[in-house]
Amino acid sequence: MSKALKKLYKNIPQFECVPGCFDCCGPVPLCKEEAEKLGIPNENSTPFSKFDLTCSYATSTGCKVYENRPFLCRLFGVVEGMKCPKTKPTKMLSKKEEEKIMSSYDELLKLK
Fold first, then answer.
1. Is the pLDDT of residue 8 over 60?
2. Torsion angle of alpha carbons 50, 66, 25, 18, nearest 10°?
3. What Rg, from alpha-carbon coordinates, does the chain have?
4. Which residues of 10-35 are buried (b: 16+ CB within 10 A; e: fewer)?
5. What is the Cα–Cα distance from 92 to 53, expressed in whole angstroms?
6. Which of 37, 36, 43, 28 is nearest to 110 (CA)?
7. What is the pLDDT of residue 1?
8. With a threshold of 0.70, does the pTM exceed it?
9. Residue 18 and residue 20: Cα distance in Å, rounded?
10. How far apart are CA 4 and CA 8, in angstroms?
11. CB 25 within 8 A of CB 58
12. Average pLDDT of the residues of the chain
């Protein structure tokens, strides 16, 4: 994993999902490195079912790729605009922290 992606992931508070829940799982953007890590040939593709927009990695027992989940999945539950309705993290990112980390990720999305 690149240093830039490791740094982004490290700055996101850890958040454990409720076992078996995948209410928030849907289409998410992927940077090239994340797409490659998940075996998706094109980073413009997202891992979701075209029929119901549920992530194809979501199962009744949880996320099949939780340890390798994309950036946006890691942010869910720790930013104001994506609060989890079922549980609360130990730390939420401030608006300033969120903007900074989103800006850094946007730069990774632009890399081809």
1. yes
2. 150
3. 14
4. eebeebebeeebbebbbebbbbbbbb
5. 27
6. 43
7. 80
8. yes
9. 6
10. 6
11. yes
12. 83
Using pLDDT thresholds of 50, 70 and 90, give the confidence band for residue 47: low
- The torsion angles phi and psi of 72, rounded to 5 degrees, stand at -65, -35
The span from the CA of 30 to the CA of 55, in Å, is 13
63, 17 Cβ separation under 8 angstroms: yes
pLDDT, mean of residues 18-29: 80
- Where along the chain do its domains lie? 3-110
The residue type of 4 is A
- Residue-wise pLDDT tens digits, 78-109: 999 998 888 888 899 999 999 999 999 988 88
53 φ, ψ (degrees, to nearest 5): 60, 20
- In this predicted structure, the answer to whether residue 111 has a pLDDT above a threshold of 80 is no
Q: CA 80, CA 59: separation in Å to the nearest integer?
A: 26
